[in-house]
């Protein structure tokens, strides 16, 4: 049995685990990131990789697959630009190989998660598949006819920055108005709640919770319990999510769309089912009811599984 070490490098933590040829993990090791300078991050990656490698034996030979935020040139292993980390033109692969003493393959983290979910999660067996990660922002990846789309400059899959509300939307972190990410990410739920607050002057949805504890789960739970402010917030957010998803169906006509990230794990009765209804209402360029919208299966493990699989088998 061949093994690789899969690494998921995020804005707040780094996680690593051995991954076998069937996409199965052994123990996962995680470290919180306290800074984003390159030397520090490389050192933290090395710590979790060393822990994971110890499970494979002292003299084991393996490749390390790393999913990192940012636009990454897969051929050279250079992170051209990573706004999360403030990096530009960082030769991350070379630095990691020098530190680890093992070959390294590097790809965008959302694309790694797409590989994992496509091959070993809800996308297994499909030919046309999209992963949408709903978290602080919106990321994801696209598989068309069994191939992961990377694009001319490795930017395919950045669906969070197509505009759905150019005139009336929220300002996105990228500077545009009404991006899909600005309207339908986990962070956007809070923005909708704040925008609707004047219509619910007696609501305790926000005033009853310290601001440091505000989050998407707070709103989804309150909506499920019938809180009027939360229900209105959820419905406004869901309409924007449906608009973006309907666009993706028009662009790509996938068989399956998987919803990942923190918000993507919301119960089907609150998310996947009503979202499917709204999306079908907006689907006009392809036959309705042809795309299945489901919760992603692998959760936080998708990025590690995908990175390890890339190291073992290459990019599908």
The CATH architecture designation of the largest domain is 2-Layer Sandwich
Give the strand line-up of the largest sheet.
Answer: 3-2-1-4-8
Mean pLDDT: 94
Please tell me how large the radius of gyration is: 20 Å
Q: Helical percent range? A: 25-40%
Number of helices: 10
* SSE run: EEEHEEEEHEHEEEHHHHEHHEH
Overall number of strands? 13
- Stated plainly, the CATH topology of the largest domain is called Nucleotidyltransferase, domain 5
Supply the CATH superfamily name of the largest domain.
ATPase, nucleotide binding domain
β-sheet strand percentage: 15-25%
Structural class: alpha/beta
Number of domains: 2
Overall morphology: globular
What composes the largest sheet?
A: 5 strands, mixed
Distance between the termini: 20 Å
């Amino acid at each position: 049995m061949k093994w690789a070490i899969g690494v998921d490098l995020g804005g707040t933590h780094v996680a690593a685990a051995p991954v076998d040829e069937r996409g199965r993990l052994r123990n996962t090791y995680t470290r919180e990131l306290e800074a984003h300078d390159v030397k520090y991050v490389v050192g933290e990656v090395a710590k979790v990789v060393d822990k994971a490698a110890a499970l494979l034996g002292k003299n084991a030979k393996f490749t390390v697959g790393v999913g990192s935020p940012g636009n990454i040139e897969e051929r050279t292993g250079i992170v051209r630009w990573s706004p999360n980390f403030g990096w530009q033109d960082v030769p991350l692969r070379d630095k990691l190989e020098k530190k680890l003493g093992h070959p390294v393959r590097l790809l965008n983290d959302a694309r790694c998660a797409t590989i994992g979910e496509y091959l070993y999660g809800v996308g297994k067996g499909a030919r046309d598949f999209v992963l949408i990660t709903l978290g602080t922002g919106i990321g994801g990846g696209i598989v068309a006819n069994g191939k992961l789309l990377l694009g001319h400059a490795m930017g395919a899959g950045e669906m969070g920055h197509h505009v759905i509300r150019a005139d009336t939307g929220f300002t996105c972190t990228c500077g545009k108005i009404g991006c899909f990410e600005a309207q339908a990410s986990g962070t956007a739920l809070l923005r909708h709640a704040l925008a609707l607050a004047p219509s619910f002057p007696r609501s305790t949805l926000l005033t009853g919770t310290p601001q440091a504890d505000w989050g998407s789960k707070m709103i989804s739970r309150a909506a499920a319990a019938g809180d009027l402010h939360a229900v209105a917030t959820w419905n406004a957010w869901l309409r924007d999510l449906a608009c973006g998803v309907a666009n993706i169906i028009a662009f790509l006509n996938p068989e399956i769309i998987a919803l990942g990230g923190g918000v993507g794990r919301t119960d089907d009765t609150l998310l996947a089912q009503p979202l499917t209804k709204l999306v079908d209402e907006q689907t006009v360029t392809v036959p309705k009811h042809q795309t299945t919208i489901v919760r992603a299966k692998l959760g936080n493990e998708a990025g590690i599984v995908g990175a390890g699989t890339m190291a073992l088998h290459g990019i599908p």
